[in-house]
């Protein structure tokens, strides 16, 4: 779902992930027609990083329980 949002509304992706400043910067980039593609690529890369961070946090919590 986040990837679909990132394709059409890259700035909204950052707000959903709790990064409002990056969302505002992405919106400013997206306003220009040339900036739409870099904003989309940035959103996709951020989603991948966000998912990796969540996996790492789960692994750390699992290790702490033992």
Quick gist of this model?
This protein has one domain. It is 85% helix and 0% strand.
Notable traits:
single chain; 66 residues; mainly alpha; 4 helices
Number of strands: 0
How big is the Rg? 14 Å
Count of alpha and pi helical runs: 4
Relative helix content: over 70%
SSE pattern, N- to C-terminal: HHHH
Overall residue-averaged pLDDT value = 90
Low-confidence stretches: none
Compute the number of structural domains. Answer: 1
Biggest sheet statistics: none
How much of the sequence is in beta strands? Answer: under 5%
Description:
It is a single chain. The protein has one domain (2-65). Helix content is 85%, strand content 0%. The chain is built from four helices and no strands. The mean pLDDT is 90.
What is this structure's SSE topology?
Blueprint: H1 2-8, H2 10-16, H3 20-31, H4 36-65
Helix pairs in contact: 1-2, 1-4, 2-3, 2-4, 3-4
């Amino acid at each position: 779902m986040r990837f679909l949002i990132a394709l059409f509304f890259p700035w909204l992706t950052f707000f959903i992930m709790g990064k409002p400043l990056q969302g505002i910067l992405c919106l400013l980039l997206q306003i220009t027609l040339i900036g739409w593609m870099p904003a989309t690529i940035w959103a996709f890369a951020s989603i991948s990083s966000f998912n990796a961070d969540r996996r790492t946090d789960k692994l750390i919590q699992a290790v702490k329980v033992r």
